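Data availability (excerpt). The following record was deposited with the supplementary files.
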Amino acid sequence: MPAAREDIRDFLRREPASILVEVTGVAGSAPRDTDAWMLVSDRAIFATIGGGQLEYMAIDQARRALRSGLAAEPMNVPLGPEIGQCCGGRVGLAFTALNPELANKLVARSDREMAARPHVYVFGAGHVGDALAMALSLAPLRVVLVDTREDELTACAMPRIETCLTAMPEAVVRDAPAGSSFVILTHDHALDFLIAAEALKRADAAYVGMIGSKTKRATFRNWLSRETGHGDLFDRLICPIGGTAVKDKRPTVIATLAAAEIMTAALTWAADRARLAGTVSR
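Predicted structure:
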């Protein structure tokens, strides 16, 4: 089932009288870059330009404009001790009253941003899988929870997590877009091995990780070499996931550690690809 879209449509429907706040310029260190924006109504906000006193000032400026009916003046804010921030940079902000055309552009922009999010496939809707999917769903990622068991997926229904019920999880790997991350933690080690072997064939994967012990890692290495003849692919596998510094094996702890690891790999891959695309286009 598809994950719910970011709720910009709901916000626009509830708060048609809003002002768009955009970061138009950044000099030095600042909380966000020039792609940041937010919507402000008299009682709610959508998204963020970085929080802190800068955002409070922007919200106040927007709401004064809403109350007065006058256009809000642009702001150029030094991020220094006078506003309680020590970033040291300077941020320019622009304010635009919402109209139907602008609302449509924002929806389209939000949809593009959602479509461009890196995919993360979590194989296994068990304790760690559920916790990991939940942690990743808070990040700018498209999270897909994959399992062969319908009941397990139904029990993990959450708004920003897609679910995929399939008898052949390895086929999901083959159909995934470039830059996808694959995290393997099913209830069946043999199934883990099949999925991991398929994922390791994807040279365009951002991340391939499998939950497991040293013994499972060694067993998979031997299996991969024997069954596929591609033992050289093993070095790309992250196992165990989440590192080895913390020995706590509680599902939520493993999920939290792994989420940071996966998000770093996924967003780095996406940024590198975007940078390369920009270089080629020039």
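Summary of structural features: The chain has two domains: 8-114, 116-276.
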